[in-house]
Amino acid sequence: MNSITTGTFAADDSLQRLEQLAGISQRLLEKARALGASQAEVSCSEDRGMDVNVRLGEVETVESTHDRGIAVTVYFGQRKGSASTADLQESSLEATVAQACAIARHTEDDEAAGLADAALMARDFPDLDTWHPWTLEARHAVDLALACEAAGRDADARIANSDGASVATAQSLSVYANSHGFIGRERSSHHSIGCALIAGQGDGMQRDGWYSSAIARADLQDPEAIGRRAAERTVARLQPRSLPTGQVPVLFAAEVARSLVGHLLSAVSGGALYRRASFLLDSAGTQLFPDWFHMHEQPLLRHGLRSCAFDGEGVATRDSALVSGGVLQRYVLGSYSARRLGLQTTANAGGVHNLKVAANAGDLPSMLSGMGTGLLVTELMGQGVNGVTGDYSRGAGGFWIENGQIAWPVDGVTIAGNLKQMFAGIEAVGSDVDPRSHVSTGSILVGRMTVAGDD
């Protein structure tokens, strides 16, 4: 068993540390300008955290992290060079800028290279309530993890083993600055508690778990409730069956439904589009989903998991529809990919912010009732998705549904289709939103997919 310290994070000095990172950014921009760069940008980050893992009532690991990084990108006209360091000594910072400049001088012109347009830089920086540090002592973190695991192991006699429980807390500070005069500061926190359990014996063993994650400690589920939920999910998987091959309705539970949104985002991202490596080329303005389907990005949402007033290039973010009335309204672009496509950035350098899929149905029980008979998918395995053709084939586990009720657990099946047809075939989105992701969606019912099993 590891020894445990009783240390905590220091008193909140995040604003002072942000100012220090901002000062470093400004000095690096000045150095780049002095070395002849026509444009430059600097990203500085600092992360602190603690992660505790226990198993079978014993402490396995207690880890404290403190990482930082400085990345410098310079442009000489349309030639680009980048370098990075984790060392804040002045000599290292100077060497990093010099290295970025040396690289830029030896690269070829890229007509799409350069900072985002100065007119697009963010000017307003509202408080988005993303900073909720948790001054957690290591001993307390261990107690929480032990309580979580114990609640799960004690919940059902069929729980035979454990893969352990964990408690983690993290704080992140970042500064982005560029030679347009833009400087943006961001601070965020993230915490989680989770548990994974094993039920049954021998070849009949099944594993499952549950976790809670949030930007504030007050938003986390109680450790005991997490352990009990992990136990319920694990024993529910015992004695699974396969299925005969056929075409049936497939309901993606909320925790896996967001993967469908992820496939859409990959296909409409700038990198895939300008490389001509997407099944959704030239799809902006076309009907991809049913006409009731809506998907909206909310980067300025207070207390959102990925809220920010600016993207990774300093461009001001704004609420906007990605899909409205089933029609794809736009792509997901940073300035580089936008220039390659002859378009304008959508303020998505670094990804999307708080994407919400609107529900048109009720909770999971009502979704099951509406489906009647089909497959409820609670786990996906493998990476069988072809981003160029949209062909979809993944291993899956979950439950067979008859008469709107769970009939038995299912394992060892493959679900297959084509993402374009799957998107068009969505029949319902539930209100049972999984709050643990910046992609906010309930369960998603696809009217018909091929399910291949062993029976």
From TrEMBL:
Pfam families: PmbA_TldD_1st, PmbA_TldD_2nd, PmbA_TldD_3rd
Protein origin, superkingdom: Bacteria
Recorded GO MF terms: metallopeptidase activity
Domain Metalloprotease TldD/E N-terminal: from-to ranges: 40-104
Keyword annotations from UniProtKB, A to Z: Hydrolase, Metalloprotease, Protease
Residue stretches in coiled coil: none
Keyword Lyase belongs to the record: no
Domain Metalloprotease TldD/E C-terminal stretches: 245-453
GO biological process: proteolysis
Domain Metalloprotease TldD/E central: start-end pairs: 132-238
Gene3D superfamilies: PmbA/TldD superfamily (3.30.2290.10)
SUPFAM superfamilies per the UniProt record, alphabetical: Putative modulator of DNA gyrase, PmbA/TldD (SSF111283)
InterPro entries per UniProt: Metalloprtase-TldD/E_C, Metalloprtase-TldD/E_cen_dom, Metalloprtase-TldD/E_N, PmbA, TldD/PmbA_N, TldD/PmbA_sf
GO cellular component annotations of the record: cytosol
Lipid biosynthesis among keywords: no
Family: Belongs to the peptidase U62 family.
PANTHER family found in the cross-reference section: METALLOPROTEASE PMBA (PTHR43421)
The protein, known as: Metalloprotease PmbA
Species this protein is from: Stenotrophomonas nitritireducens
